C-alpha cells in the first residue's frame, strides 16, 4: 500500500479524520460494518487488520509464537510487531480485547442458561 508523499493541510487532515472516526462510530449494525470495510479496504488491508487482531488475541491468551505462526500463517516478525504495539500503546488493543472477552463470556453464560432450562 502506498501513501501519497504530498502532505495535507493539518486542518483539512484533522477534519477528514474526524469525519472518518464519526462514520465508524455511526455504523451500528455488523452488516453495515462489513459493507464499509469491504468497500473501503482492499482484501490485503482487511487481512492485515484481521490477522493483527487475531495475533493480539492469541498473545493475550499466552500462546507461543510457534502456535500463532502455525494457526494464523503469519511470520515471527508480524507477531513481534503486534507484541511491540500491544506493549507500546495498547489502549486500542485493550479496548478490542476486552470487548471480545465480554462477548465470549456472554456467549458462555447464555449457553449455560440455555442448558440449565433444558
UniProtKB/TrEMBL annotation:
It comes from the Bacteria. It holds the Pfam family Trp_repressor. GO terms for molecular function: DNA-binding transcription factor activity; sequence-specific DNA binding. Gene3D superfamilies: TrpR-like. This is TrpR-like protein YerC/YecD. It comes from Candidatus Beckwithbacteria bacterium CG10_big_fil_rev_8_21_14_0_10_34_10.
Amino acid at each position: 500500500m502506498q501513501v501519497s508523499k504530498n502532505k495535507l493541510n493539518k486542518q483539512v487532515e484533522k477534519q477528514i479524520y474526524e469525519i472518518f472516526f464519526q462514520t465508524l462510530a455511526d455504523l451500528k449494525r455488523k452488516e453495515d460494518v462489513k459493507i464499509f470495510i469491504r468497500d473501503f479496504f482492499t482484501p490485503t488491508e482487511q487481512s492485515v487488520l484481521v490477522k493483527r487482531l487475531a495475533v493480539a488475541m492469541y498473545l493475550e491468551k499466552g500462546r507461543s509464537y510457534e502456535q500463532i505462526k502455525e494457526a494464523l500463517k503469519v511470520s515471527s516478525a508480524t507477531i513481534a510487531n503486534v507484541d511491540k504495539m500491544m506493549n507500546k500503546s495498547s489502549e486500542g488493543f485493550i479496548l478490542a480485547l476486552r470487548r471480545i472477552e465480554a462477548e465470549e463470556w456472554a456467549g458462555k453464560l447464555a449457553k449455560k442458561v440455555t442448558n440449565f432450562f433444558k
